[in-house]
Amino acid sequence: MDENIFDFDSQYQELLFEDNDNQGDLKTLKTNARENEDEYTNLNLFSIFFNCTGDSKANFNDSIFEKDLEILLNHQNFEIPNEFELFDIQFDENFENFDILIQMARADIQKLHLSSLDSFHKTFYNLRENVTKLLLILRCNYQLLTDNQLKLIRFALGTFDSMANFSLMYMSFCNDGNTSTSSNYHLLHGMLEWKWIWITMCYKLDYFKGQIGGDDAESFIEIKLLIYDLITLSISKFQKCNNANLIFTTPFICSCVREMWLLLYSFIQKLQDNQINFWDIVSNVIEELSKGKSLYENFASKKALFRSSNFMTCRNFDQFSLWIISGLTKLIGSEYPQIMNDRQSYELYENLIKNFLKTDQTEENMRVLLLMISEVLLNVWQPKADILMLLWENFQKKINSPFLIAGQNPNFLAVSANTAASFLEQIRNQQNTAVSKLNPNLTSYSIFVYALGKMVQRFSDDGQKVHIQRILGRIYTKFPAPKLKQLNEMGIHNILKLFITLALSTNLNDIDSKLCDTLLQIPLDKPNHQQLIMKGHISMLILYCENSLNISQYLTKLMTQINILMQQSSSSSTNILKVLSESLSLIVLRNMNENADVFENGEDLLIDSWIIKFLENSTTAEQDRLYETINKIIIKVQSVQHSSLVSNQTSLITQKLFNFLLPYARQNFGKVESIWMPEMIANLCLLSLEPNIILNDIPKFETLFRTFVEINSTNFEQSIKFITIILRSCHDVDKLDMQLIIQNWIRFSVLLSGSNYELKELTKNLIHLPEFTTLCNTSLTKPEEFLNSKEPLCTFISDIGKKYADSNNQEKFQLVEKVHTYFSTFEKWSLPILQQNSTQKSTASQSQTNSVDEHIMRIYTFIAITFLHCAELIFIRTKSSCFFNVAISHFILPSTVMMGQSPVRSMILSIHKVWPLLIEGTSRLNYKNDQHINKVLSDIIIKWAPFLKLSSNSKFVAKPFISITNFKNLDLIEFFWMKLSKNFLALQPGRKVNSHCYMILNVIEEVMHVVECEEKRMIAIWRSIMQQIIEMAMLFEEIEPAQKTCMNLIERYIKNKNFDTSTTMNEHLMKNLKNITNSTSLSYHSALYFKFLTKLSKHRVTIVNSLLSHLITQIEKVEQLRGSGRDVKLRNLYDQLQSQCR
Question: Per the database record, which ranges form the Protein MMS22-like N-terminal domain (predicted)?
Fold first, then answer.
C-alpha cells in the first residue's frame, strides 16, 4: 500500500474530534482515500471491517507496515445510506426502533460465541458484519440511545476472556483475511471492531455530557478495559511460547491487534491535553494483572461482565511484562518517533526491570531479557544509562560466573580466542553487529556488554562525556584491588571483555588512564590466568596504537611485572611471552606502509630480553613466527633510515635489536631449523651498513658477514639463503668479500646438488658479479645455459682450466694464486665430513649395496673434475699446501690407504666412480719425467685397484678399468696395465700368486670383451701383461684357477681376428715366449715349459714350430753350462714337442 495512505492517520485524528456537522472535512477525507487507493473507491459505512493479514512476526517493523485502510476510516462521520439491510431486513435512514436491532445483534454475538465451540460456517462473517453495521449506525445516532440500550449493547459485547476458546485466541489470525470461515477468527476480529466503535461512541457521549477527562468517564474506563483485554490476549500467546522463541515473537497475535494498539495510542495521545497518558494506563493495567486481579473488578458497572473461571494466569509475569512493553515500545516507536523523548515509557520500562531483577532469574531468562530490551534501549529512546546501570549492579555480583544455561557444556562458550588480535577482533565484530542480528546463543553478560558499549558509543557521538564518566565511575568502584585478586579465569575474561568494549566504544583518550590502571591491578602470578590477562593487555595496546597513543607508561608498568616473573621462574612466564610474541608485529608494525611517527610511541620497550628468553623455550613453529616478525621490524627500521626520518627512538630500537639478537644469532645460526632465521640475520647485518644511525659496540658489516658465513658449518641451506639475501640486497658491492662468497659457493656446489633451489638462487645472484665472470666465461656469454646446467660447478672448473691454458705466464700466476685462495678452505670443511663418515664402519660398510653417502661422492667427484681440468693449475711443486697435494694426501692417498687398510665403503664407491678421472688428470702432469708425479700416479693405480672389488659382479668391478683402457693416450694405458701386471700378476717366490691376482685376471677378461677388436689397445695392454700371463699359464698347476684363466686369455689372444695379420701381435708373443726360455729358466722349469708349448701347439702349431730352432739353441746352452754332455731329459722333451708339431 502506498505510504501516502498513512496520512489518513493524522487526518483521522483531526476529524475524530470534530462535530458531526463537519461534512466538508469528511468529504475531503473520502476524496483523499479514493485518490490514494483505488480499491477503496466504493467505501461506505458498511465496508468498515478489520481484515487480517496474518500473524504479527517479530520483524514486523523491518518490513513495510501496512495500515488497514478500513479501520482508519472507521469513525463516526460516515453518512447513513438512505436504505440499508441488517439481519436480512431492509431499513431506511429514518428507522429509530433500536431495541429490536440491539436484541438481534446480541443474538448474533451469542451465535458466534456458541459457534466457536463448533466448526466452520460461511455465515460467520455475516453475523459479525450485522453487529458491526449496527454499531456504526448506533454511533451515528448516539444521542438517541437510552441508558438501558447502552447497557444492553455493552453487556452484549462482553470481554475477551469470556470467549469460550480464549486460550486459543492467539491462533486466531488468518492469512485469508475476512474470507476465512473460522468462527474464532470472526469472533475475535468482531470483538476488536465492536470495542473500538464502542470506545469512540462512549467518547462522544462523554463529550456530549461534558465528562471528558475524568477517571470516571466511560470512554476512559473502556480504554483501560480494552487495553486490559489486549494484554490478556498477549498473555495467551506468551503462555504458548517458550523462552527461546520469545525474542523472535511479538506480543500481538495478529496484525489487527497490532493496529488496534496503534489506534489506541493515537487516540490517547489526542486526549493527553486532558491529562490521560497511554503509558500510565498500561502501567496501571499491568500492576493489576500482577496482583492476579481482573481490571473489570475495579468498576462496579463492569463486574457483571467478568468471568473469573476464564481469567488468564501467567507463568512469569515479570518476564511477560517486559516482553509486551518491549513489543509496544518498538511498535509505537516505529510509527511515532516522538516516543524517544517519552519519559513515562522509559520509567515504566525501568520499573519493570527492577521488579524482574528482584528475583533470582535463570540465565535463559536473562538472555531473553537482554535481547528484548537491547533493541528498545538502543533504537527507540534517546541514550540513557539508568536501565543498563540497574543491570550492571546485577552482573557485577556474578562477575566470576560463566553465565551458562543449566546443562550447557562450558566448551560451548568461547572463553577466549587463540590470539590477542583475534580476541580484540572478536569483540570488535560483535560491537559492529546490528542488535537485530545478535547471536541468540550469546550469554546474558555478553549481550549486556554489547548494549553498554553501544550506549557509550551513542553518548560519545553526542558529545555527552559526563554520562560516560558516570558509567565508568559506577564500573570502577566495583573493582577494588582485593576483588581483582579474587577473580577466576571466567571473571577475568568478563572484565577484559567489558573494558575492551568500552575502549572500542568511545575516545580512548578519555578513559585510558583509569581503565588501564585497573587492568594492571589484575595479578599475573597465576599461570592459568596469564595467557588470558596478557591477551587483554595486548588488545588494549593494539587499541592504543590504532589511536596513535603513546604506550610507554602502560608498557613500562606491564614489562616490569613480566620481568619480575621472568626472574622468578622461566616456566612461570612462558604463557606471557607467547602472547607477547604473537602480538609483537601488531604493536611495533602497526603502520608497515607509513614512516611518519614510526617508533615514536614507546614501541622500543617491547624489544627486550624476553625475546631471547622466549626463543630459547619455544617450539620451532613459534620461533619461526617470531623470526619473521623481527625480520619485518628490521626491514621497517631500514625503511625509516632511508626516508631520513631517523629519530632517537629509531636509533634506540636499532641498538636493542643488535644487543639482544647478535649474541643469540651467533650461538644458534645453523643449529635452529628455521626458514626465517637466515633472512633475519642477513637483514640485521645489512642494517649495520646504514649510515644514518650511530651504533655503539656493533661490529662492522664485513666482520658480521664473515662471522655468519663461517659460523654455520652444517646447515648449508641456511648459509646459502643468508649469502643470497646479502648479495641481492647489498647495494655497496665493494663491501662484499667476494673471495669468501666464491669459496662458499664452491663448498655448497660440492655438497649440494646443482638442482637445489637455494643454491640456484645464490648462483643466479652471483654470476653477474665481475670477479665471477672473469673466471667463468660461460656465465658471462651464456648465463641461461650456465644456470640451467646440471652442475654449474663443473662448468666453472672447466672454464678455469681453459682460461689457464689460454693465459700468458703472468696471468697464469695470478690465476693460480686466486684459485688456490678459493680452494684454501676445502680441507677445512670437507675433511670433517670424510672423517665423520670413516668412523661409521658398521653394517653399512659391509653391505653389498652400491649406495653411497652423497657428500662423500660429491667431494671426490669435485676433486676428480678439478684434477682433470686444472691439474697444472692446482699443482705447485714448491708448495705442500697446494690443492693437488692436499687432495692426494688427505683424500686420494691417505695414510690408511697407503698402508693397505680398507677405507669405508662410501669412499671406495666414490673412487670406483672417479678413478679414471683421477688417473687421467694426474697423467696430465709430467709423470714420465717427474718422479714425484710418477710415484703419485703409480700409487693411485696400485693402492686403489685391490679395493675396487666391491661386488661379485665382474662387469661392475671392471667398469673403471674399461674406462681407463678407452683413454686416447695409449702410453697411459700401457703404464696403467704395466703397474697392475707387475704388482698383482707377477709370481711371488715359490710360484705363489698375489692375493689380488684373480681379481685382476677377471678384470682383464672383461676388458678383452671390450677392446679385442681394437688392435692398438690390445697391443698396449698385452705389452704390459704378456710375460706375467705366460708365466702363470706355464708354471701353475692345472688345478689352479689362475692357470686356466691365463690359458684362456692366451688362447683369446692368438685367436684374435687381428692376430694373423698383425706382425706386432705375433712378434710380441714370440718375444715373450723366447724371453721365458733363457738357459736358467729352461734348466729349472723344462718340463712345465714343454708342457705349456704342447698345449699351445694345439691352438697355434705354427707358433711352436717357429720356436723349435730357438729351443734347440737354448738346450745346447743348458748342456754347455752343465758340462755333462747331452741332456737326455731335455732332448726327449724336445723330441716329443717336435713330434707333436708334425
Answer: 223-643
Residue 870 in this model has a pLDDT that exceeds 60: yes
SS3 content of the chain, % helix, strand, coil (to 5): 70, 0, 30
Give 57's strand partners. 249
231 DSSP 8-state letter: H
User: Would you list the domain boundaries of the chain?
Assistant: 3-50+60-358, 360-511, 951-1076, 1077-1142
SS3 category, 667: helix
Q: Range with the lowest mean pLDDT among 660-674, 773-787, 839-853? A: 839-853
Q: What CA–CA distance (Å, rounded) separates 626 from 581? A: 6
The Cα angle at residue 386 between residues 384 and 387, in degrees rounded to 5: 100
Please, which residues have CB within 8 angstroms of residue 333's CB and are 6 or more apart in sequence? Answer: 339, 340, 376, 379, 380, 381
Q: Which residues pair with 830 in a beta bridge?
A: none
| Four-residue CA torsion sign, 747, 753, 755, 757 | negative
- What contacts 24+ positions apart, CB below 8 Å, involve 356-360? 356/318, 356/319, 356/321, 356/322, 357/390, 357/391, 357/394, 359/318
Long-range contacts, 180-184 (Cβ 8 Å, 24+)? 180/52, 180/125, 181/120, 181/121, 181/122, 181/124, 182/120, 182/124, 183/112, 183/115, 183/116, 183/118, 183/119, 183/120, 183/121, 183/124, 184/116
- Upper half-sphere CA count for residue 541 (Cβ side, 13 Å): 33
Do residues 795 and 786 make contact, with C-beta atoms less than 8 angstroms apart? yes
Identify the residue whose cell numbers are 569483540: 427
Distance CA 552, CA 1014 (A): 89
The secondary structure element, H or E, covering residue 628 is helix 620-642
881: nearest Cα among 803, 950, 823, 965: 823
Q: What is the CA radius of gyration of the chain?
A: 55
Contact present, 1083 and 1077 (Cβ < 8 Å): no
Contact 767, 779 (CB under 8 A): yes
At 433, is the secondary structure helix, strand, or coil? coil
**What is d(CA 206, CA 187) in angstroms, rounded to the nearest whole number?**
28
Distance between CA atoms of 120 and 113, rounded to whole angstroms? Answer: 12
- pLDDT tens profile 308-344: 444 556 888 999 999 999 999 988 888 887 766 778 8
In sequence order, what DSSP letters do the residues of 65-111 get, joined into one string? ----HHHHT-STTPPPPSEEEETTEEEETT---HHHHHHHHHHHHHH
Which runs of consecutive H residues, i.e. helices, occur in 308-361?
A: 317-335, 343-358
Give me the numbers of helices (H) and strands (E) for the chain, helices first please. Answer: 53, 2
- Rounded to 5°, the CA angle 748-749-752 comes to 75
Q: Residues 389-439: pLDDT tens digits?
A: 999 999 999 999 999 887 676 654 445 578 899 999 999 999 999 998 998
- Contact (Cβ atoms closer than 8 angstroms) between residue 500 and residue 427: yes
Give the residues across from 85 on adjacent strands.
90
What does the pLDDT look like over 236-295, one tens digit per residue? 889 888 888 888 888 998 888 888 898 888 888 877 655 678 898 999 999 988 888 888
Q: Where are the alpha helices (H) located in 210-316, listed in sequence order?
A: 218-239, 243-246, 255-271, 278-290
- Give the integer Cα–Cα distance in Å for 548 and 559: 20
pLDDT value, residue 351: 93
Structure letter (DSSP) for residue 405: P
**What Cα–Cα distance (Å) separates residue 70 from each residue in 48, 52, 501?**
5, 11, 49
Amino acid at 1049: L
Task: Region of 88 please: left (phi>0), alpha (psi -120 to 50) or beta.
Answer: left
